[in-house]
Design brief:
Layout: E1 2-10, E2 15-22, E3 31-33, E4 51-58, E5 61-63, E6 65-69, E7 72-75, E8 82-89, E9 98-100, E10 104-107, H1 109-112, E11 115-116, E12 124-128, E13 140-143, E14 147-150, E15 156-160, H2 163-166, E16 171-174, E17 177-183, E18 186-193, H3 201-219, E19 228-236, E20 241-244, E21 248-254, H4 270-285, H5 311-328, H6 334-349, H7 359-364, H8 377-380, H9 386-402, H10 409-421, H11 431-440, H12 445-453, H13 460-466, E22 469-475, E23 484-485, E24 496-497, E25 500-504, E26 509-514, H14 519-523, E27 530-534, E28 537-538, H15 541-549, E29 556-563, E30 566-573, E31 575-576, E32 579-586, H16 593-599
Parallel strand pairs: 1-12, 18-19, 19-21, 23-32
Antiparallel strand pairs: 1-2, 2-8, 3-7, 3-11, 4-5, 4-8, 6-7, 9-10, 10-16, 12-15, 13-16, 14-15, 17-18, 20-21, 22-32, 24-31, 25-26, 26-27, 27-28, 27-29, 29-30
Helix pairs in contact: 3-4, 4-5, 5-6, 5-9, 6-9, 10-11
Bound molecules: zinc ion.
Zinc ion is lined by residues 281, 285, 315, 318.
């Protein structure tokens, strides 16, 4: 029997105490290991670096457990029972690892549960001890892990059939706020840690319920592939992100993302819409990536990178549907949806990375490029989330075109679900293309070659023509300009731009990224340069964009900046940026029949 006893007595030092008890005979040479990455987040994170002490005993006597490499230990003697006590430093405020203080404890199994090599398919037990100090007496346990014996606060014993399941049920333990709803009689819980007390829980639950219900209907099964579902959200002043699991998700959001009691319920802010799309995204992952998954992702290969070209499918398709489902379930309006779509297109076209890296390359190199982005990322890589989402739109419309609107991407998803996800068969690298061809009964190689394996521009214009939507690309006028929905397409005159992003610095405006081909790039300005004056007059980050936009196009100005604390003055020829900001508008007073057929499909 493999059991972990988790104690939470060291909140101030952020140390989680684990006692792993293995009640069986083990031979010399037996290995124990900890994952180096967590499924869903494709970067080596070396969780073992957070183990600050580890010792092993058998029947009270010390046992020789020696480190083999950074995250693997070898037993140097035969034992008939093994106890390993270790402490984990838990101070990573993210959905990917573990975080513990006197306000809450969150952990993923990948950060705290050692695996016993060759016994990964055995049943694993967890016992979480209720903390007695530091306000811990008010804490409750939220997890989707099946329990065997717990008290009314959720402390006690849990169990999983195998190690892969064990690490797919994170825990949030705190004095959280909670709301419940049902989808097809299946209980869904949402817990919010450190949220403002006045968030409108009922409103959030009502909106999320509609989205979840729509998704369950989408797959047309009698019930969801899980017995219950848990959204656990950590609320910060500023934060955003999520990680999917089999029957739960860990989310981070900002205070402003959540509606408050007394807000106008007819209005949904962009921030709240993005929180809803995050919930929608992670919930859809319960099917797409947790159950329909790449064949290359084998359960216990968590100590090295696994490369797949398919992340465009698992993240891009999910990104496409997370927003579309909000519209289809009636949670947002058509205008809200066009706003989201336009801003996604802006994210895609802003930066030359899209003409250098294909979607499949982006997916394959996620570990070293997408997850390790630096200041040059917009010029070098394309996001498999953002381009993947737009490719999903193109694929959806292509299937509709080739089948005279008899089939759509929805049918392809249901086909993949029934052939792969439901049967627990992994998806091979070229299976999506083959299934799409089978669905439409026509060759699609040329189409897939273009969208997946080339850097050719996506044919978005023709899609919007068909939908009777005005698709406008204009030059950015300031760094925060992300485009969006407009009631009517308006002609706007391009203004000068440095084509950079920047942030406030005590001295001036510190450059973060420089887009290739823009005025700043041609002048040789770079990341970390601090612009202090334009034509000799002091400037800071808050007024830089406005001051630049006030010059006529083709003006030459002097830019003064610090680089490595040395002052430089350079002449800069100001031009407008490329047309890299997207606005979408309905051509007519109401959405076209083609739009409704696609976007509001039931
Ligand atoms: Zn995702």
């Amino acid at each position: 029997m493999i059991k972990y006893i988790v104690s939470l007595d060291n909140a101030n030092r952020h140390l989680i105490d684990v006692c792993m008890v293995i009640e069986q005979s083990l031979e010399k040479g037996q290995e124990l290991w900890l994952p180096d990455w967590i499924p869903g987040s494709y970067m080596i994170r070396d969780f073992s670096k957070n183990i600050v002490s580890l010792s092993a005993t058998s029947n009270g006597e010390p046992v020789n457990l020696v480190k083999k490499n950074k995250s693997c230990w070898t037993l140097k003697e035969n034992v008939d029972l093994l106890k390993i006590r270790y402490q984990i430093y838990a101070w990573d405020l993210s959905v990917r690892s573990a975080h513990f203080d006197d306000q809450h404890c969150f952990f993923n199994g990948t950060s705290i549960f050692l695996a016993l090599r060759s016994y990964e398919n055995s049943e694993h037990f967890v016992e979480v001890i209720q903390p007695s100090k530091l306000g811990g007496e008010k804490w409750k346990v939220a997890t989707s892990m099946p329990y065997s014996s717990i008290n009314s606060f959720g402390f006690g014993r849990y169990s999983c059939d195998d190690y892969a399941t064990l690490i797919d049920h994170p825990f949030e333990i705190s004095d959280y706020l909670e709301v419940k709803f049902f989808v097809n009689d299946v209980e869904h819980r949402m817990v919010f840690t450190e949220s403002p007390k006045n968030i409108d829980l009922e409103r959030i639950a009502k909106d999320v319920q509609r989205v979840c219900q729509y998704q369950c209907n989408f797959f047309a099964d009698e019930k969801q592939p899980f017995d219950d579902y848990l959204f656990m959200t950590f609320v910060q002043k500023k934060g955003f992100g999520g990680l999917e699991h089999m029957s739960s998700t860990a989310l981070h959001c900002s205070h402003d993302d959540l509606p408050k009691l007394g807000d106008d319920i007819d209005k949904k802010s962009r921030d709240y819409q993005s929180f809803l799309s995050l919930c929608s995204h992670e919930y859809f992952h319960s099917w797409n990536v947790k159950r329909i998954k790449p064949a290359r992702f084998e359960a216990y290969k968590l100590q090295q990178e696994i490369h797949t070209e398919l992340l465009w499918f698992f993240e891009g398709i999910t990104s496409y549907y997370d927003e579309l489902f909000l519209l289809r379930s009636g949670v947002i309006t058509e205008e809200n949806y066009l706003d989201m779509l336009a801003r996604n297109i802006t994210r895609y076209i802003r930066g030359n990375g899209r003409i250098k890296q294909t979607l499949t390359e982006s997916s394959f190199d996620a570990w070293t490029k997408f997850y390790k982005q630096d200041e040059n990322a917009p010029n070098a890589i394309v996001s498999y989330y953002v381009k993947g989402g737009l490719v999903a739109l193109c694929l959806d419309l292509e299937i509709r075109k080739l089948t005279n609107d008899n089939k759509s991407l929805d049918d392809l998803m249901r086909l993949i679900w029934s052939r792969y996800g439901k049967k627990n068969i992994g998806v091979n690298e070229t299976d999506i293309e083959k299934l799409a061809e089978e669905l439409v009964d026509k060759p699609m190689k040329k189409f897939f070659d273009r969208i997946l394996y080339s850097t050719k521009e996506l044919e978005l214009k023709s899609i919007f023509e068909l939908m009777e939507i005005d698709y406008q690309l204009v030059s950015e006028s300031k760094q925060m300009d992300r485009g969006g929905y407009r009631k009517k397409a308006i002609e706007s005159n391009p203004t000068c731009s440095l084509s950079i992003t920047h942030k406030a610095n005590p001295v001036g405006a510190e450059i973060v990224t420089v887009l290739e081909g823009g005025s700043a790039s041609k002048t040789g300005l770079s990341n970390k340069d601090i612009i202090i004056a334009l034509d000799g007059y002091k400037v800071d980050s808050s007024e830089l964009d406005k001051r630049i936009a006030s010059y006529p196009i083709d003006t030459e100005i002097s830019v003064s900046f610090f680089r490595r604390d040395k002052l430089y003055h350079r002449l800069c020829h100001l031009t407008a940026s490329e047309a890299n900001t997207c606005f979408l508008s309905f051509k007519n007073t109401s959405p076209s029949a083609a739009f409704n057929l696609w976007a509001k499909a039931k």
